[in-house]
Amino acid sequence: MREDVDRIVIREHELAERVTAMAREIAAGYPDSAEGITIVTVLAGSLVFLSDLIRRLPLKMRIGLITVSSYAGRTTLSNGAALASSFLPDLRNRHVLIVDDILETGGTLRLVQSQIRAAGPRSVKTAVLLRKTAKAPTDLPVEFIGFDIEDLFVVGYGLDYDGLYRNLPYIAVLRPELYRTGAEP
Ligand code: IMP
Ligand code: MG
Predict the structure, then answer these.
(1) Tally of domains in the chain
(2) Residue 19: which CATH number?
(3) Is the pTM above the cut of 0.85?
């Protein structure tokens, strides 16, 4: 698996340090946290980020899961987000924090945010580990951002290519010949 990696973009210790700092920023965003928050995480890319983040967040929390499909199969082109399934606790009057792996065109988060808002929460904030600055829309509210990255297709720390490489402990770019862009043949 590691022989497929062309170059590491964000190292393990950089991820750990930034996620710790993000947890502090997020906790500071909920000063009267007695009732806690409800995290809604977008599967499966956010799994690793989520598990590191929540263990550094000293808040009461419930966790809901939502699945959105945008990159199916061996492609690095987004096909437009569609809600696949969700396992959510009651969000009415809750402070909801959406957690996603990466913000690219914003299609995924736009869909998730509107879905969450429709459930009548008290507040909605969004945290993403990565943002591709070149593509990210400026009109989408995202309160917590881990790293701004170049417009590269990255894998690892939860992010996949064709379902693989999620378990790499760092963020990396694969060797170019491994990527097949465009629609499935
Ligand atoms: P958006 O809907 O265009 O913002 O794309 C966001 C979703 O596409 C993310 O939640 C990821 O699942 C996926 N995605 C976008 N860029 C990458 C990448 O570089 N590597 C892996 N997945 C990506
Ligand atoms: Mg995703």
Answers:
(1) 1
(2) 3.40.50.2020
(3) yes
